[in-house]
Amino acid sequence: MTLPRCPKCQSEFTYEDGDLYICPECAHEWGKAGGDEPAEAAKVWKDAFGNVLTDGDSVTLVKDLKLKGSSAVIKVGTKVKNIRLIDGDHDIDCKIEGFGAMQLKSEFVKKS
């Protein structure tokens, strides 16, 4: 059985590792099913009602949020402008007037 050449550097010294082929010369990995790299699904952020969020959107809170380490509460209906989407548990990076910079979960906002 002959193994395919590396699609990046054309090396003939590829080897199998599970469902992948690996090139020891350039460290390129690709799937056996064909194609160069498996297509990664683009991350989609959705609000509490299933609307797709994008960078720069304005959102409104749908739940009172208590701030850790403080007695302050951000009330329902607070509008947040110009959000930035990030990876992680808290996936919205924003500035809330009167509270400053913070991160929110997309499940507690609705797109305005």
TrEMBL record:
Domain Protein YjdM C-terminal: residue ranges: 46-111
- List, alphabetically, the InterPro entries matched: YjdM (IPR004624), YjdM_C (IPR013988), YjdM_N (IPR013987)
Pfam families on file? YjdM, Zn_Ribbon_YjdM
Q: Which residues form the Protein YjdM N-terminal domain?
A: 2-30
List where the protein spans the membrane: none
Give the family, as the similarity comment puts it: Belongs to the YjdM family.
Q: What is this protein called?
A: Zinc ribbon domain-containing protein YjdM
What taxonomic ancestry is recorded?
Answer: Bacteria, Pseudomonadati, Pseudomonadota, Betaproteobacteria, Burkholderiales
